[in-house]
Amino acid sequence: MTLVGKKFPNLNVTATDKTGQNQTINILEEAQKNNKKVILFWYPKDFTFVCPTELYAFEAAVAAFEKRNTIVIGASCDTPEVHFAWLNTPKNQGGIQGVSYKLIADSNRNLASTLGILDITNETYNEETGVVTVEGDNVTYRATYLIDEEGTVFHEGVNHMPVGRNVSEFLRLIDAYAHVQENGEVCPANWQEGDTAMTANRDGVAEYLAAHVN
């Protein structure tokens, strides 16, 4: 079930950063109280393979997100202690030393379950023992949420485990949404900051197509 157009779930979660100081945060409140957009990106596991490349890619773009009034937050189902260990492991040992933004430690999987992004298949219930077993790692896919200043989700996307994300696309989506917020126009396919947008009516689309589509 998509969350686009709806408020992000109002749940408290534990987060940590490179200082190792744990804190309780609420993504909905982060957006609303700070009057900022939020990009929340989930990844499967600390100390794995594609994941550190993504965390460093988001770190490299932190200033670009901040320029767009957007907070970067990472998330997985690891514990705060594992996050802290990874945050203090050098690059040449597969770590993410230097990453500055908060990482949610959803080790009880409350938020990931609510979002429906866990890798769980073939759930089986044994009536004799009362035990439920599942296939899959019970960790998250590479899910990404863009949330506006009112806490409303305006983009969500989910990649399978082996496929890393393109951070520049999220910057483009934020630019496009901000243009809509500020100007009341809609943004056509492949729109980039500075491009012509469209008036959302029959004349607007006709004018745009005549000028820009061969």
Q: Please, could you describe this protein's structure?
A:
The chain is an alpha+beta fold and 214 residues long. The mean pLDDT is 97. It has helices at 27-34, 50-60, 62-67, 80-87, 110-115, 167-183, 202-212, and strands at 12-16, 23-26, 37-42, 70-76, 102-105, 121-126, 131-135, 142-147, 153-159. The protein is 31% helix and 23% strand. The longest helix has 17 residues, at 167-183. The strands form two sheets. A seven-stranded mixed beta sheet has the order 2-1-5-4-3-8-9. Strands 6-7 form a two-stranded antiparallel sheet.
The tally of strands reads: 9
Distinct helical segment count: 7
Name the helix and strand elements from N-terminus to C-terminus, one letter apiece. Answer: EEHEHHEHEHEEEEHH
Q: Structural class per helix/strand content?
A: alpha+beta
Strand content: 15-25%
Largest sheet: 7 strands, mixed
Ranges where pLDDT stays below 50 over 5 or more residues in a row are none
Helix content: 25-40%
Shape: globular
Distance between the termini: 37 Å
Overall mean pLDDT stands at 97
Radius of gyration: 19 Å
Strand arrangement within the widest β-sheet reads 2-1-5-4-3-8-9
Provide keyphrases for this structure:
214 residues; alpha+beta; 7-stranded mixed sheet; 23% strand
Write the layout of secondary structure elements.
Layout: E1 12-16, E2 23-26, H1 27-34, E3 37-42, H2 50-60, H3 62-67, E4 70-76, H4 80-87, E5 102-105, H5 110-115, E6 121-126, E7 131-135, E8 142-147, E9 153-159, H6 167-183, H7 202-212
Parallel strand pairs: 3-4, 4-5
Antiparallel strand pairs: 1-2, 1-5, 3-8, 6-7, 8-9
